[in-house]
Amino acid sequence: MNNRLQSLPANKVLVLFDGYCNLCNGAVQFILKRDSRDRFRFAALTWPAGKEVLEDHPQLSSTDSIIVYCAGKVYAHSSAALVIAGRLGGLWPLMKVFWIVPPFIRDAVYKWVARNRYRWFGKKETCMIPETDLGYKFLSQ
Questions:
Q1: What's the per-residue H, E or C state across 35-62?
Q2: Is the separation of the CB atoms in 6 and 103 below 8 Å?
Q3: Which residue has better confidence, 133 or 13?
């Protein structure tokens, strides 16, 4: 494991995202607004921290949507979304009930949306740059 991931506190959840995808950027903004306990950190998949997680977990190398790295474990597809929901404030942790749905069903829906996200939501020309006051939540490029 590398320095960037070793420096991530054990109580933080690293959300890796497609920095060019409008849907993924919207998801990051959604999480930021609801992260009242400061549990989340973020990095684009193309930033060094994202590349390091993908290098450490080659089975995810073709994943180009949200991945969660938490306490040395990685979650992708619908599991990543459920881990995020479980750590948000409000009623979002109730989404944990969907863990009972078999992953092949959850992931099929997730992957269908992921395949169509650029067509439905668009794509940015440049990777998202974090707002100044929230920059500390983003692992440096």
A1: CCCCCEEEEECCCHHHHHHHHHCHHHCC
A2: no
A3: 13
Distance CA 120, CA 33 (A): 23
Q: What angle do CA 87, 115, 44 make, to 5 degrees?
A: 50
- 36: alpha, beta or left, given left = phi > 0 and alpha = psi -120 to 50? alpha
Distance CA 20, CA 33 (A): 20
* Measured distance CA(4)–CA(19) in Å, rounded: 19
User: What amino acid is encoded at 117 in this protein?
Assistant: R
Handedness of CA 130, 55, 116, 99 (dihedral sign): negative
| Mean pLDDT, the chain, whole residue set | 86
Mean pLDDT value of segment 120-124: 84
Side chain identity at residue 78, one-letter code = S
What is the pLDDT at residue 87? 92
